[in-house]
Amino acid sequence: MNSTRRTEFLPFHRPSIGDAEIAEVVDTLRSGWLTMGPKTQRFEEKFAAYVGSRHAIAVNSCTAALHLLFEAIGLGPGDEVITTPYTFTATVASVLYTGATPVLVDTLAGYPNIDPQAVATRVSDRTKAIVPVHFAGMPCDMDRLGELAAGCGASLIDDAAHALPARYKGRMIGSIGRASAFSFYAGKNMTTGEGGMITTDDSALADALRIRRLHGISRDAWKRYTAEGSWYYEVEALGFKYNMTDINASLGLHQLDRLGEFQKRRHELIALYEENLAQVPGIVTPEVPSDVESAWHLYVVRLDPKRLRTTRNEVIELLKADNIGTSVHFIPAPLHPLYQQRLGCRKEDFPNAVGLYEQSISLPLFPAMADDDVLSVCRSLERIVAENQR
Ligand SMILES: *Cc1c(COP(=O)(O)O)cnc(C)c1O
Question: Which of 39, 83, 254, 273 could staple 131 via S-S, CB 3.0–4.6 A?
Fold first, then answer.
């Protein structure tokens, strides 16, 4: 048995659900109102105030948020959306839902966010949206991407699934692009079980989104079963069933209250990782540009193949043997059969994203982790690296 093996399994992630969240869910269950209603509305108001946007529209996932946005801006066949291959499948798939064409451009070299120079080579009059992903919570170059979007009349819509809370040049992510999409999936920085949020300052867009998230029925349709409501409604647009429920919003209200506390703990854990991994040869820790504040959704380290004679996959297995759970973010879109078939993309065209993917491991990171948990991961990595030096 390894000298560094933990006795208890350390998961890659575990959500922090407190008594306040549980009490709020119970209150909702007893209230007689389970679906979208007053608690969702309160959650939206609180969320908009938190990121500094005029509107927040709650939905049942970030995938739904992206799809709804692409529908609301009228994407269809012939339109193009420029985005990154280094993301979760939902970013690219939600473009395909509308019949529009995702145009994938590579990340920067050795850095996981989209390369604005590469975006510049692909903008055209067919470009209707530019969709950056703030990888691991690290904001993209929003000024440059905003200029490129403005230059071709496209919308800057950011996939902010990792970026709560994050700042770009002092401004909160969620208040910069035309609209931003957040995720409250169980593994994200705060969770509603499943859920998502769109933020925007554009009131006409917000109206279009509110109508389309609930069957395309006229505004405030959810009130039709309340005392103020009426049975009559009209379907104004082709909508979807993407609304959040008050059960999920109950979790969100308190998770948002606790986000500051979660982030403080994430920062402490990151500092511990940094302190203990800085001197480990062959482990490359993430760099944060000076003009951004990361949400630190993930802590992704890279293995330098020049220093190590083991593969990323082997290291994952060795960590697992030490009772440590890890993950990989992301398997780039061009490696998936769907995108090879639908977009004709080849992995050779995305050397930066594919290179990052092949070297990266996401280490455990969640607020309930103890200092000792971080230290045990570092000890295991140090041993694995020491046994596999070139
Ligand atoms: C998690 C994630 C999504 C999808 O979020 P859901 O709420 O699960 O739909 C989209 N984009 C990125 C980058 C993600 O990590």
Answer: 83
